Amino acid sequence: MKVSVVITLKKDVLDPQGKVIHQTLNGMGFDNIKEVRQGKYFEIITKEDDKEKAERKVEDMCIKLLTNLVIEDYKIIK
Amino acid sequence: MNSSVITFPGSNCDRDMDVALKKFGFNNKMVWHENVDLPKSDLVVLPGGFSYGDYLRCGSMASKSKIMRSVINFAKDGGKVMGICNGFQILIESGLLPGAMLRNKYLEFICKNVFVKVNDKDNSYFKGLKKDILEFHIAHNEGNYFCTSEQVKEIDDNNQIALYYSDVNGNIDENNNPNGSIKNIAGIFNKEKNVLGMMPHPERMIDLLLSGEDGSIFFENLINNLK
Question: pTM for this structure?
Fold first, then answer.
């Protein structure tokens, strides 16, 4: 079973990389962008067959290692 | 005084720290991260570097290594633990210190001398220090200290800020903030003040011929305080 997680900086945390990408895209002519946030993406392939159990395990991984909850949010992609 | 410096894969300031500690009288041991037991220590130091190649988040992998379980227990029993640079990041990731580290505000690796102002001397790291403003070296990409507004209030109320980035006269303002760190924070304590994390490297300022002597002042004072 594959579980996918996206981790991004929290809304109120400055994301300087996202800002620079935003400016660069503007410079390239993509001018109707509101905001760019950069994040991380994980694919975790578990031996678990039960979807719910697998997602609960991955959530535990997010809390214990994959994210620092002071600055980041995680989202398991359903 | 016995000290231990922990070496993680990717640590690169561990031997400098060893030289510094020995120079000022510590009987220092180097401890590999896979060891389970900590030698008898009056001070444990987590050195600077790039443990585990800064994978995931700086310090996050090292914070889960075997020796860290012993270091965390040692700290919870009141043992003195000091983390420099990557060591500071490891202390944050292990939960011994609050907050998080973000990339430097202008996305640059910063490597230069800075001045830091000691905020509080009512602790075993800075008690009796003969200077208030020290010139130390910084070299980091993720030193932009961040914490939630509740955490800022808590560390302020408990007087947990150890060092501020400042100018030579001790002015703490945005012009003297190299990395965007909240409140110009360069170093913090835990509540009990036995755990200290700081981005600047005192071990790089122990020889006048090479750099400066403010690190010497810090280490001389530290060993006297621990005796």
Answer: 0.94
